[in-house]
Amino acid sequence: MNLVEKYRAKKYADILGQHEAVEEIKNFLKQFPKKKALLLYGPAGTGKTSLALAAVTENNLEVLELNSSDLRNRAKLEETLRPATQQQALFKKGKIILMDEVDGVTGTDIGGIPELVNLIITTKYPIIMTCNDVWQSKLSPVRAKSKLVEMKQLSLDQITSILTNISKAENYNKSPMVLRQLAIKSHGDLRAAINDLSSYSLVDSAVDLTEKRDYEENIFNILRRLFKERGDFLNLFDNSELSLDEIFLWIEENIPKEYKNEVLAKAYYALANADVFRGRIYRNQSYRFLVYQNIFQSAGVSYSKPSALQGFTKYERPKRVLKIWMNNQKIAKKKTIAKKYAKFVHCSTKRALRDFPLIMPMLQQADVQKKLDLSEEEIEFIQK
To answer: Is 250 within the bounds of a domain?
Structure first.
């Protein structure tokens, strides 16, 4: 048995750092069938599956475990899963239907989300689902039928504490520094941290903190956490392929979609402070100010609101980036036309660009366009 399964939380008391989620799942089971489904969501390794299985143990219930692949076959849904949501448990007073990773179902799956919604409507037993990204548009019908419960990312201290207990129980004799490094490397993923502990138990080498996991934070997930949750988020941007400046533009574009009135003003004030430090970085090459830019556009924006937000918001790409790109495209076309004209009349490209407004009427003539061998795109640019 691997360490993850060996030390999986068995009861509510074993679930660390998720007090609110534990209370929510207790209330859900007490109030069933007021809501027939509960959707646990949050980053990988926060204990979503463990909490669902703890609920099974605490209530002495049977469990039927499924995953996204089971939702892809309509015949299997009809023959196996649908009866399971109706039939009485054999040896215990009831059961829970556990569906892991429902966000793994794609729009092309034969069964998919519509069948899952039908199961929720007709089930006689509680359905508990898990997913990382609850705000995907394809999950909208599921959200409407489910109680949403968020699992918070575990802190560095919490993961270090768990690793310390496991290390002692397994007689690994790992130093507190190594355990701390493993916690840092996990980026809040307890499952990954335990797997790393198992790997490093066989060697005495230092933890390679530069080693990157096959993990990249999607910008839309970053925005959802930043706008919906309330926290420091100083490491929120670490796993994004986008630069801090690019993320700045995404935040600037989408703040009004989430915040209103005083909260909106506070968020823009935080972002304005981030922009001040951006300016200092570019003017003076003072890269030590990057930490302040990061603080203002992460914790500053997140703490602008008094409490966490719910609901789905559709985020958009920054229009400023689009405008810059379109302007660059115009400049590029203008420059290629000026080069062709300069070569034809034996002048510099710089001179042709300077006189461009004066030569535009001439460039709009068909015979001149033919002599300069202008492309269709270049002719279209001139005619606008």
So the answer is: yes
Residue entry with tokens 């924006």: 301
Q: Closest by alpha carbon to 190, among 43, 45, 41?
A: 45
What is the count of structural domains for the chain? Answer: 4
pTM greater than the 0.70 cutoff: no
Q: Do 251 and 326 share a structural domain?
A: no
Structure-block tokens of residue 30: 């007490």
Per residue in 92-131, pLDDT (tens digit) is 578 898 988 887 775 555 457 787 888 888 888 899 999 8
For the segment 240-277, what is each residue's pLDDT rounded down to a tens digit? 777 788 888 899 999 999 999 999 999 999 999 999 99
C-alpha to C-alpha distance for 196 and 193, rounded to whole angstroms = 5
**Domain of residue 131, residue span:** 3-150
| CA 367 centroid distance within chain | 55
Clarify whether residues 139 and 11 are in a common domain: yes
Amino acid at 300: G
Q: In terms of residues, how long is the chain?
A: 384
Cα separation, 332 vs 327, in Å, equals 9
Residues 52, 107 share a domain = yes
Report which of 342, 362, 346 is spatially closest to residue 354, judged by C-alpha positions: 342
